[in-house]
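Predict the 3D structure for this chain.
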Amino acid sequence: MMPPRHRRRFMTCAVVATAFGLAGAQASAASGDTRPRPWNARHQADIGRQHVRSLGAGKSALVAPGRDDGGSDEAENSAEGTAQYTEARTAPGVVAPGAYGAAWSQLQSMRHTGGGWDHVTKKPYNSDDPRYRDINSNSSGGSGNVTGRITGIAADDQGYVYAGGANGGVFRSRTGGGHWEPIADKLPSLSTGTLALDGSRRLWYATGESNTGATSYVGTGVYVLAAPRHGRFQPGGRVGGAELESTVVHALRFAGTTVWAATSRGVWTHSTTTLSGPWKLEFAPNPDYLPGGSKQADPSAPYKNIANDIAVDPKDPDRVLLAVGWRGGDTYNGMYSKQGGSWKRVTGIGDLPSTSEDVGNVTFAAAADGSRLYAVAQSPAQMASNPDSGLKGVYVSKGGSPLGPWTQIADYTKLRNSGSALQSAGYMPGIQSWYNQFLQVDPGNADHVYLGLEEVFETKNGGASWITPGPYWNFPFPCWSVDPAKQTGDCSPTTHSDQHAVAVGTYKGKPWVYVGNDGGIYRRPLSGAVDSGGHAKDWQSLNDGTIDVLQFYSVGVGKDRNHGGVSVTGGLQDNGQSILRGHDKVMGSNFGGDGGDTLAAPGNGCDIAAEYVYLDMWVTQDCGENNGAWATDPAKATEYEVAPPDKDLGGAGARFIAPITSDAKDINTWVAGGRHVWVQNKGFAIRSGAEWKNAYDLGAGHVATAVAASGGTVYAGWCGPCDSQGFSRGIAVGKADGTGWHQLGLPVEGALPNRYISGFEVDPADAQHVYVAVNGFSRKWTEGPGAGSGHVFESRDGGGNWTDISANLPDVPADTVKLLPNGALALGTDLATFYCPPGASEWQVLGTGLPTTAVLQLKLGPDNRLYAATHGRGIWSFGIRRLKGSTND
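Done. Predicted structure below.
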């Protein structure tokens, strides 16, 4: 497999509507091939094909149980990562609605310690930082300043713009974009489904991230802000009751005094004039699978009532078309309209797909004057049979009627030939159309349309011809060069890849189009300038650092030897590895693709090990600083692929985000967990994957979920199967030299719950004294064998016996546990970070100011600060010396 310029991939977060109540590079160059192979187009499909081969060991992650989803390389790679994140929070069974909401309610009454959190990554993040153009960087691709995934945008005619992060809440700009301020942090859910301004200029915030296939955080419903230019969302602003808790909301559509909501539990309506009273369920194709139904506990239940969008006839608000269906295909998929008082399938409406085989994810967009209605449609059948794209097409109803007749105006080949950067077999426009979709019609021109897939497309003649103003990246184009000195200047900035949201607004009398994607929010003039290839010359990144919705999996901290202070690095969903050195005002990106787990030397923050996915580890000892000289002189590359052999097994050999660590007493002894427990003793001087030694085989079908080591004693938590279909977990203990390994006796029903092992902490004074963090929800919420109770456990005999020390903790998934120098414990969860003082038996909320979002990793820095990697609001730090007391604030 060729050395990767890693594809930016998405790995979203927790799943399913019922889930929680809320929500050898140098070798190739040395052979004489000095082409910039990391950007070689074929690589886009190579990783996917490797992944597809690995699926023989288990089903694809986002395939509903019992169904083979087939489909595309990278999309399946994405899907597996998504489901693995979910498995940690749902296994061993289905989680009942209300679990997260109950935990959030309990949190409100808990005491806080003194001190406040400081926001480390509230700075611009330049993905094209010219300092970091080593062999495994994506720098110079053209995305510029980035942040995390934006899944909702609304904009008005006075320069106010609203952007919603995948798990970061809503931000407001008063200046047409930029200078952002958070306005939803008091809500229990910061997961964005969609944002919309109604006719009264109220801002509607639908929580529950809007990606088809239930691939996201569920939410707590829909909220309204009456004065969005000045106010902030409050829990009391929720529309209706609890009907839309634990759902994903794909779309809100307004018709007269009614708002329609397409959700993962069917289609609902509510009055826009009276916001109290319950939501009305208009249509659910399989009601038995809804909460309270006879099949609510079925593993397929979250996939059985997915509604993607609603189109309302502007001339007749009673004429409504529902696009319903699971992206992987199901018999209920289709287009529905109301006939004779009941919802029935619609056929014969022209080119727009209407059969269950071809209706998957669908998005509608109407012209302001009602003269046109557009649609983009993904096809389950095509995704299963066509390795290049799952896009069925783009369509128009020229009379504006949802019932057509519809005419196709584009397919993936037409879009590919319109200036797209996606030209290689296995990765063409629409390959992720089940995940990437938006449509927007110019309010002043019904024939002018913006289309979002992996890239941004545009037509000004109703679809007769298209251009690609926002290509995936600039690497395939003649203007690009890895050497900044050779950059011609013809490569214009583009947007980040993977499009999700769009809006049109006006600032100082000028209309702008705003797009949201896996790298944040961008804008350009609505009728902007393009070059000879149809690529826009005028994109502006609005990710100025004041909007931090970065989705970190990990964090590493080390001293900055050159400038003082510390360097902070971390692995990110779809945004590579970030690095912020002690003197920096702007973050850079030194490794590309998805960033997984991270190691950084406490004494030298430029010694970094970064994971891509499936244990594909890379190491640098100079922060990855390189001007691209490796392209002509291989000896100048300073990033080295050092992956353990399990990497080559894909999903059968390791989790999508697999655990790595160093021994607490020896920074040069590393442990990596896949199917095997791997150990190497060269620290950051490692240069090859062959230098790892297999310390222990966890067993066929078992993969590590957490590892820890101290003084040569290693703990490895594993799962397998890892989903709710026969979920099994365990802990293996042994020595780093491969001796003394054994599996702990962990019965299904016992002190340690039969749930996902997410983190360890070993007492540096006694390797037999160990703590474990357990994910998921307790027995009260989980319909699964051995779900048990509690989230943090302690053993003083090397795991022979465990004591539940969860005490007064809310029942919420726990992700990471850290023993502090004063003997206290810190626990990162999907809700907050908690603190248990030394000798105490009850927990408090650690400090103030940390947003309500998932804390996936806690690490101590050499500066006596605790660092928290959040999956939605960046990296934060807390001065542990502040812990002298507590307060009720």
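DSSP finds six helices and 60 strands in the chain.
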